[in-house]
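Hey, can you fold this one?
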Amino acid sequence: MRFKPYYGSLSQKNTQLIDRGYYFKLVNCNILIVRSVLEENGFVEQDSKGPEFTVLWCVGPIKSEIYQSLSFYQKVLFDEFSSSDGVIS
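Sure. Predicted structure:
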């Protein structure tokens, strides 16, 4: 998958989301640019209770149960400015 850059306004919510089967979760954060880029590239936000996601973007520590329950296609990304310093897949 190649991501295209986001050129829209962060103050306006994208209302034309198409469900392509890609889902994301934002944990302990609400980073508008991350949300906008993911939505622009066909990802739909999953509610906090839903187990299905393709990308999990989080700030702060993650419970080990989350890592242990990941499927091969799921990715966990840490905020660059948090205490974590990497991408786990």
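The longest helix spans residues 32-40. Let me know if you want another pass with a different chain boundary.
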